[in-house]
Design brief:
CATH architecture of one domain: 2-Layer Sandwich
Number of strands: 3
Strand content: 15-25%
Strand order of the largest sheet: 2-1-3
Number of helices: 4
Distance between the termini: 70 Å
CATH superfamily of one domain: Ribosomal protein L7/L12, C-terminal domain/Adaptor protein ClpS
Amino acid sequence: MSKYCVIFIGEINDTFQLDAVKLNFKHQFKLSEIQTQFIFSGKEITLKKGLSQENALKFAMHLDEMGAVSYIETMASEIQFPEGVTNDRRTDIRRQKFERRNHARAGISADRRVHSERRKQD
């Protein structure tokens, strides 16, 4: 099953006024003034991602009713690596803890010196 994302460019419908759409966005999504300015800066902004096709269409229609022009794009399901290239960060061996000799995790360990009696002089 494909996942979709809804992308907004900062454009509005011709029948709406820019100030009204900005105010509507601000109240509908509970945004600050700075966030609202960033959304309407003209850059491509993904408003929602990981949606089903039905939910993405509903959200895009809701934006259209508010006066914002948006579009839906399919998300890449999995990254395809070229032949011979692997992603070591996702392997289980990376997550294993390596055995360490007398590993005390974030605790105070006893003095492991061979001649511990010399400590009495310090």
